[in-house]
Design a protein that fits this description.
Length: 362
């Protein structure tokens, strides 16, 4: 009788252990199925040729897919190894790099940038490092609606922007600006003794196992890179002409790669985000500081923290990064959840639907 009772209790214990795992697996599969259906509908609705999606939950990549075409005209399928540009979402990597240097005692976020960079215009010298990260520097922008200021080389653009007046007092207001991240690339190189790209490769890419990642724009020859498209009208199109899918070209000079130069995959980004959430890239205190909005001179919160836009109250925070109107990744740190969506359509704006994917995993 005792043996029978023992066997019964053992079986019951095993059942109680297995059932939650089975339920979790069933719930996850339902979430993944819902994500697949949602992706198919969204691609159809928005005319997205190709994309990658990855979801991180509690430190694990629980969903990953590549759908559609990396190149439409040659019918090249998007695969998990296809490189997609993340454009301005690169700024999140730059924020992590600066925080790593601060964590190592090699950089002070509150120091004036003149402590690390020489021959700056007088009006730039008192700007603090953290103000570059949060776009509260008040600097003029090296990029305008036509591209680099002056329409010439990067060196010429820097000469011209340094002659322009400040747009605001440092810390007075938020204004998104590419000059900030060009200067941060120089600071990272100066403090680390390595180029920006090499610093990221050694301290972020290798640390989390990112193996499909590079730098460049649509003019650079990166193997296995997706072709970019848009439905935006060309300047030569007649008014009211029907929309058509066309190539999209963008120029990102090397000196501004810290603000928008990375090309990678959703899987690699998911590994990086998992590494952040598990504090394998930064300590918990550095991570918290990086994701705390920068305060303006009047005490109010700016729109950005250190390389990342931040929104939502405590307990429902959303730390996001998006670029080129075609790439986005969002972290929900209080839920241990992150979503990555990369597309090759300018105007897909995946930041508009990452929340809907995240809802399937809550």
């Amino acid at each position: 009788m005792r043996r029978a009772t023992s066997r019964y209790l053992l079986c019951l214990g095993v059942l109680l252990c297995v059932l939650p795992l089975q339920l979790a697996a069933a719930t996850l599969e339902a979430a993944n199925d819902a994500t697949r259906r949602f992706i198919a509908a969204t691609m159809e609705d928005r005319g997205i040729p190709g994309l990658q999606v990855a979801v991180v939950k509690d430190g694990n990549v629980v969903f990953s897919t590549a759908v559609g075409l990396a190149n439409v005209e040659n019918k090249v399928a998007a695969t998990p190894a296809t490189l997609f540009p993340i454009n301005s979402a690169t700024k999140a990597f730059t924020g992590v790099a600066v925080m790593q240097l601060a964590e190592a005692g090699q950089l002070d976020l509150d120091a004036p940038i003149s402590a690390y960079l020489q021959q700056l215009p007088a009006a730039w010298q008192a700007i603090r490092v953290r103000q570059l990260l949060a776009h509260t520097s008040g600097l003029p922008d090296i990029v305008d609606a036509q591209g680099l200021v002056g329409g010439g080389s990067e060196a010429t653009a820097w000469q011209l922007v340094e002659q322009q007046p400040m747009q605001a007092l440092p810390g007075a207001r938020f204004a998104y600006n590419q000059t900030n991240y060009g200067l941060l690339a120089r600071i990272i190189a100066q403090r680390s003794g390595r180029s920006y790209e090499n610093y990221l490769a050694d301290n972020q890419f290798k640390r989390v196992g990112m193996t499909h990642v590079g730098f460049g724009d649509s003019y650079d020859l990166l193997p296995n890179a997706a072709t970019m498209y848009s439905f935006f009208p060309r300047s030569s199109d007649a008014a009211g002409a029907p929309k058509r899918l066309s190539h999209w070209f963008y120029d990102m000079p090397q000196g501004l790669w810290a603000g928008g130069g990375i090309q990678t995959t959703a899987d690699d980004l998911a590994r990086w985000l998992a590494g952040l959430l598990q504090q394998r890239v930064l300590r918990a205190d550095s991570l918290a500081q990086m994701w705390t909005p920068e305060r303006l001179n009047d005490g109010s919160e700016g729109d950005w923290a250190a390389g990342w836009p931040v929104s939502g109250p405590a307990g429902k925070r959303q730390i996001s990064s998006f670029g080129g109107a075609r790439a986005a990744f969002v972290v929900y740190p209080d839920e241990g959840l992150a979503v990555v969506v990369l597309t090759n359509l300018v105007g897909a704006n995946p930041q508009q639907f990452t929340d809907q994917i995240a809802d399937f995993y809550r």
